[in-house]
Amino acid sequence: MVKSLIAIAVSALLLFGAALFEWFYVEDQFEGFHEELMSLYLKTQDETASGEDAKAVQTAWEERKEHLHIWIPHNDISKVDDYMSETVRLVAEKEYPLALAKIEIMLHLSCCLPGTYRPGIENVF
Amino acid sequence: MIRTAIIFVVLLIIMRLMGKRQIGEMQPFELVITLLIAELACIPMADVSIPLLYGVISVVTIYVLHEIMTLLDLKIKPLKSLISGKPSVVINKNGIDDYQLKKNNLDVSDLIESLRTSGYFSLDSVDYALYEANGTFSALPREDYESTQTSLPLVIIDNGKYDKKNLELLGLEKSFFDEILRQQGIKKEKRVLVLTADGTGKLYLQAKGEKFKTLQTEYPGGKTW
Predict the structure, then answer these.
(1) What would the DSSP string read from start to end of B31-71?
(2) Which positions in chain B touch A75 (Cβ < 8 Å)?
(3) What is the pLDDT of residue B30?
(4) What was the ipTM of the complex prediction?
(5) Is the separation of the CB atoms in B117 and B132 below 8 Å?
(6) What is the pLDDT of residues A71-97, one digit of tens each?
(7) Is the CB of A8 inside 8 Å of chain B's CB atoms?
(8) For an engineered disulfide with B219, which of B51, B95, B109, B223 has Cβ 3.0 to 4.6 Å away?
């Protein structure tokens, strides 16, 4: 019985720890991504953003997503990938209004995606 | 984690409600675990867009639930019957317990089938028969049960209804058995839980809510099988 109780406690702690880690890690990664996107958004709004700026944000995202693949469904990541690629192209071609629309979608995704991994009633059902 | 726990509890309740027909030789919660683990392990393996970690977390959650259920099952008696169920005595000294059969979603023909599988061909061959909590069937035979198994009994009335196929097979008329029922004070066949007839003329009759009787009769034209 003591063995079973220890096994239950250890496994439950591991699960709880994994859940907390996922929650904080995913939130932290998307917060950083949101900040990078925001600065690109402001530059794009001022029409001062260059292709290098957008490429830098994309490179930072590529690094983040390598680890995010462990924690979140890959479809969510590929959604951001698609918009990121379009943004790089649009900013490089100075199509600022179109680029803004894409960045806004990514800003929205970076806000709402971590929310889907929070323990909450809306995520349980 | 929470979703897995919810599915586990829901499946467990459903399996318990379904009675013993749905389970093999496992306890209900073990069957639920087997069903879930197979699926949980399979989905992240087949769908590469889902991180493998999701499957691992779910399976570990199932393991924790299994350990908790096993502890409750072993240590808390009232919970044991709630989680795993209790054995149901379906045949006792009075005959078939219709209430217990219905409670487990079984009927008389299922019971006869279980008896035959256990090697008892006549309902009066056993003093007690029960479905265990894990769904297996156990029977305590009468001391002289081999002498009761001289011929294969066929079901004539099952839960108030004549078995037309068996009547045709025997080549006997419904009126022949109606007359026997009248002699036993049973006016309508609906009152009969089970009536079986074997080739030597032995009848096993049990009216609903009453003790069973065995009768000896002779079939028209001296028929035997």
Answers:
(1) HHHHHHHHHHHHHHHH-TTS-HHHHHHHHHHHHHHHHHHHH
(2) 49
(3) 80
(4) 0.73
(5) no
(6) 888 888 999 999 999 999 999 999 999
(7) yes
(8) B223
Query: For chain B, which residues score pLDDT lower than 50?
Result: none
* Interface A-B: count of C-beta contacts within 8 A: 45
Cα–Cα separations (whole angstroms), residue A87 to A61, A65, A105, A113, B202:
13, 17, 10, 19, 89
The residues, any chain, with a CB within 8 Å of residue B20's CB and separated by 6 or more, are B85, B88, B104, B105, B106, B131, B133, B135
Q: What is the pTM assigned to this prediction?
A: 0.69
Cα angle value B114/B152/B192 (rounded, 5°): 70
CB pair distance less than 8 Å for B67 and A69: no
Per-residue burial over A65-93, b if 16 or more Cβ lie within 10 Å, else e, is: beebeebbbbebbeebeebbebbbebbbe
A15 close to B (CB below 8 A): yes
A4 in reach of chain B (CB within 8 A): yes
Pick left, alpha or beta for residue B222 (phi over 0 → left; psi -120 to 50 → alpha; otherwise beta). left
Give the residue on A whose Cα is nearest the Cα of B75.
A1
- Residue B78's contacts (CB-CB under 8 Å, 6 or more residues apart) are none
A1 and B60 in contact by Cβ < 8 A? no
**Tokens encoding A75:** 């479809």
Judged by a CB distance cut-off of 8 A, whether residue B46 touches chain A is: no
3-state secondary structure of B79: helix
